[in-house]
Amino acid sequence: MKLVFPDITYKERAVEFIREFHEYGSYINGTGSLDRFLREYSYEEWLKKLIRDMDIANIPDGKVPALTYFFVREEDERIVGMVNIRLAMNDRIRNEAGHIGYCIRPAERRKGYGTELLSKALRVCDVIGIREVLVSCDKENAGSAGVIKNCGGVLLWEEWSNTYEAVIQMYAISRG
Predict the structure, then answer these.
(1) Predicted structure pTM score
(2) Among 40, 45, 35, 31, which residue's Cα sits nearest to residue 15?
(3) What value does the CA radius of gyration of the chain take, rounded to a whole number of Å?
(4) pLDDT tens, 113-165?
(5) C-alpha 156, offset from chain centre
(6) How many CA atoms lie within 13 A of 80 on its CB side?
(7) Among 87, 142, 134, 94, which residue's Cα sits nearest to residue 114?
(8) Three-class SS string for 58-106?
(9) Greatest alpha-carbon span in the chain
(10) Cys-Cys link to 144, which of 14, 102, 105, 137 (CB 3.0-4.6 A)?
(11) SS3 sequence, the chain?
């Protein structure tokens, strides 16, 4: 398994990845807004957005710089998951989203991919110098909570989120 920065060669696989979430009626997280861009714009516009997300000097007010990756199975190049790593904090990120948002495609869940994806994302945080990584999940998402705990997550708090219309749990993962 590898993290891959999105490019045009992954267009069809990315569209199929998002389509699966819709087919399963599953909530989508950690895609750097890929699902919204596919509805409202295009994959190509989303790729441009990913570059803007990394342009630290020109991040719009209310946004934070971020990196987005596909989590790809090497033997078949299938996108198994996605991760969005936020490089800074604002109030919304600190209180609701955390540094890392991620998802595993519905047909590939419960196979250990979530823990592997989050572990790889934490290594990116190590390189960037984020030593206390915040990760949130819906309280009802026991699978995601398990992934976070598998990676050393300690529950900080839980509370209602108007943004997500759910009780969210915020975990901290210390990185030394």
Answers:
(1) 0.94
(2) 35
(3) 15
(4) 999 999 999 999 999 999 999 999 999 999 999 999 999 999 999 999 988 88
(5) 20
(6) 21
(7) 142
(8) HCCCCCCCEEEEEEEECCCCEEEEEEEEECCCCHHHHHHHECEEEEECH
(9) 41
(10) 137
(11) CEEECCCHHHHHHHHHHHHHHHHHCCCCCCCCCHHHHHHHCCHHHHHHHHHHHHCHHHCCCCCCCEEEEEEEECCCCEEEEEEEEECCCCHHHHHHHECEEEEECHHHCCCCHHHHHHHHHHHHHHHHCCCEEEEEEECCCHHHHHHHHHCCCEEEEEEEECCCCEEEEEEEEECC
The span from the CA of 60 to the CA of 45, in Å, is 17
What is the Cα–Cα distance from 74 to 83, expressed in whole angstroms?
A: 17
Domains of the chain (ranges; CATH) run 2-130 (3.40.630.30)
Q: Which residue has the tokens 């719009």?
A: 60
